[in-house]
Structures are given as C-alpha cells and as structure tokens.
C-alpha cells in the first residue's frame, strides 16, 4: 500500500508518516518545508520526499500519475488563523485551491484510491454558543482559514458522493506535542509557551485568557487517524479532540506547574477572527473504539520532558 502525505514534514504530518512507515506502508511526502523539516521524519531515508509546493498544479498532476497512491492524507496548509487574516489570498491558494485541484485530477484520471482524508479544523464552528461542538452542530467560520477549511470540506464530501470517491474529513481541535514549530508568531500556542519556558522569554497573552480550547496530544490524533483508515470511513466529518474544555489561563497555570517555572506574561489585545470557546463532542470517534491515552496533564508532561531531553542531547 502506498500513501501520499502532503505536509508530511510538518508537525502532525511527520508523526503520521512515522506511523504509516511502521505499519508497512510505502510513503511519499510532498512538503515545501515552509514550516516543516525533513529532520522531523524519523524514517526519512525509507520514504520518497518531494520538496515542492502543493499549489504547483502541473507537478501535483504528474506526481499522481507517477506515484499512484492508494491513500492520500492532505495535511499541507498554512495552519494559522491569524496568518490567514494577514495573507488571505496566499492561504486560500494552499488551504483550498490546492486540495480542490488534486481532487479534480483524481476524478479525471479515475485514480482508484482507497481513502482521501482531508484535515479540516474546529475553527469551522466559529463563535456560535452551543457547546460541545458535534459534527452536525451549526458552523459559522469567521476567518479566511476557517472559511477555506469549510468550503474544502464541502468539496471533498461532494466529490466523494458525486464521483464515488472514498473521501473523509477530520476536524482537528488544538493539537500539541513534539515537532510543532514555534518559530512563527502565528505558531500554535503550546509550542510558543514551551519555547518561552525553555528560553525564559516573556509570553504574550492575547485577550484575557478566558478563551477556551480542546487540547489534544499528537499521539492521540495519529491513533484517531489510523482508526479512520482501518475502518475505511468515508463520506463523513469526524471531530478529533480530547473532549475537554480548558481556558488559556488554565493551561498556562498547569504548564507552569509541570515545568516548575513562572512565565513572564505580557498582555495584548485579543486577535481578530478568534474563536472564544471551543470543545468537541467525540462521540463519533468513540464509536470507532477510540479512547484517549493522553489526558491533558499527562500529555503536557510528556511534551515538556521530551523538550528538556532534546535540549540536553
Ligand atoms: P504544520 O505547519 O506543522 O504542517 C503543515 C505542513 O505543510 C508544513 O510542513 C509546511 O511546510 C507544509 N506546507 C505549507 N504550505 C505548503 C505548500 N504550499 N506546499 C507544500 N507544503 C506546504 O501544521 P500542522 O499543525 O501539522 O497542521 C497539519 C494540518 O492540520 C493542516 O492542514 C492544519 O490546517 C490542520 N489542523 C491543525 C491543527 C493544530 O492544532 N495543529 C488543528 C486543526 C487543523
Ligand atoms: C489552532 C491551530 C489551527 C487549528 C485550530 C483548531 C495552529 C497555529 N493553529 O488555532 O490550525 O485549525 O487550532 O481549533 O496550529 N495565543 C496567545 N499567545 C500566543 C499565541 C496564541 O495568547 O503567542 C492565543 C490565541 O490568541 C488563541 C489561543 O492562544 O486564543 C490559541 O491560539 P493558537 O494556538 O494560534 O490556536 P487557534 O487559533 O485556536
């Protein structure tokens, strides 16, 4: 079995690639290394890596024809809400058009895929009051990132139904863990917090810290993705989360306790396009026999210990 992972050198993608290789898959990665790194991939010497842009349509078309993957996991994206507000046109090209074009090539060449999995986001739910978010909850995307994710989901599912393609969409909530790149001001908050704790730099808190998120450890995410592949799930949207709502103030407090350090916190205005409260219902995932192995404190402790070990080696 051959799997194509776009964004496979990134945070979540590299963990998925490791798992696929360890499960006996032949793996092909396309990543432009804008946020990812080949060194993220444990088994990089066993896979084929194309350092390329998923928006390069000609390249992607040729890649499909040459590699003919059985499974496609589309993770390449500009993954930041705030970045999409700064650069809506650039992020739209990656987060929407590139996925649509790939689907269209699959349809045109009638590639006999076993699964096409698109990684969407909890951001699609926006700021509507009902919590926890179920897959059939109303959506109200408020940023270019969230709008692109939702529009792409609709195409992925419609292509599945209309052209009989085994497509599925997952909505990740806030994923954290090793290899999340903290280098951009738009990086995931837990990678930035980790970096601030490691380097004793001040942390900028946007808003009053009462905003909530559902933080999920990356190993649990890979376990969920694998269940979705094993069960050959298609024509569905599935939340991937922990099912626990935590405020930013709460997670900062917990992380300081784990690290045994106090952070210097600078206050700044809330960012535009923000979701105030987020937590998932994970009933659909549980029906695939999913159980979390990484409750928040355990996951954060593992992440912190890994970072300290890394710094020592
Ligand atoms: P990431 O930035 O680590 O991974 C994305 C990868 O895509 C990076 O390696 C980057 O170099 C690559 N990439 C970006 N633009 C590209 C392009 N034009 N061509 C080729 N490669 C390109 O982010 P991540 O957190 O691993 O996110 C993976 C996916 O999951 C994304 O689609 C993201 O939107 C989605 N997601 C992530 C989270 C989260 O909390 N991390 C939550 C919801 C959804
Ligand atoms: C994150 C993901 C996004 C995903 C979404 C799903 C990243 C970069 N973003 O967006 O891909 O679709 O979850 O829910 O992985 N914050 C600070 N200081 C900082 C950085 C962030 O206070 O230095 C705050 C933000 O304003 C926000 C919260 O922390 O309120 C979380 O921010 P962030 O990690 O960027 O996550 P989301 O915007 O939820």
Automatic annotation (TrEMBL):
GO terms for molecular function: UDP-glucose 4-epimerase activity. Transmembrane segments: none annotated. Residues 3-241 form the NAD-dependent epimerase/dehydratase domain. Keywords: Isomerase. Its EC number is 5.1.3.2. It is an enzyme of class 5 (isomerase). InterPro entries: Epimerase_deHydtase, NAD(P)-bd_dom_sf. Belongs to the NAD(P)-dependent epimerase/dehydratase family. PANTHER family: DTDP-D-GLUCOSE 4,6-DEHYDRATASE-RELATED (PTHR43000). This is UDP-glucose 4-epimerase. It comes from Lactiplantibacillus plantarum (Lactobacillus plantarum). The lineage of its organism: Bacteria, Bacillati, Bacillota, Bacilli, Lactobacillales.
């Amino acid at each position: 079995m051959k799997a194509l992972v776009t964004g496979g050198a990134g945070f979540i993608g590299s963990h998925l690639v490791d798992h696929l290789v360890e499960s006996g898959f032949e793996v092909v990665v396309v990543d432009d290394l804008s946020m990812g790194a080949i060194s993220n991939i444990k088994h990089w010497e066993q896979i084929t890596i194309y350092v390329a842009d998923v928006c390069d349509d000609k390249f992607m078309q040729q890649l499909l024809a040459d590699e003919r993957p059985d499974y496609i996991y589309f993770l390449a994206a500009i993954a930041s809400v705030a970045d999409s507000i700064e650069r809506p046109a650039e992020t739209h090209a990656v987060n929407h058009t590139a996925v649509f074009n790939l689907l269209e090539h699959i349809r045109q060449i009638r590639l006999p895929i076993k699964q096409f999995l698109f990684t969407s986001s909890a951001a699609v739910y926006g700021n509507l009051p009902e919590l926890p978010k179920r897959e059939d909850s109303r959506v109200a995307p408020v940023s270019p990132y969230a709008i692109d994710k939702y529009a792409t989901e609709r195409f992925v599912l419609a292509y599945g139904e209309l052209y009989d393609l085994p497509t599925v969409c997952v909505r990740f909530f806030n994923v954290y863990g090793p290899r999340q790149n903290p280098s951009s001001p738009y990086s995931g908050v837990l990678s930035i917090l980790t970096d601030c704790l490691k380097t004793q730099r001040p942390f900028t808190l946007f808003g009053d810290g009462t905003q909530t998120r559902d933080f999920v450890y990356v190993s649990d995410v890979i376990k969920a993705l694998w269940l979705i592949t094993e069960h050959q799930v298609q024509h569905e949207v599935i939340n991937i989360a922990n099912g626990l709502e935590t405020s930013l103030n709460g997670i900062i407090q917990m992380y300081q306790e784990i690290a045994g350090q106090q952070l210097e916190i600078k206050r700044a205005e809330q960012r535009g396009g923000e979701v105030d409260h987020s937590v998932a219902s994970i009933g659909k995932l549980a029906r695939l026999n999913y159980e979390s192995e990484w409750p928040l404190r355990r996951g954060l402790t593992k992440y912190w210990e890994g970072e300290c070990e890394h710094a020592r080696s």
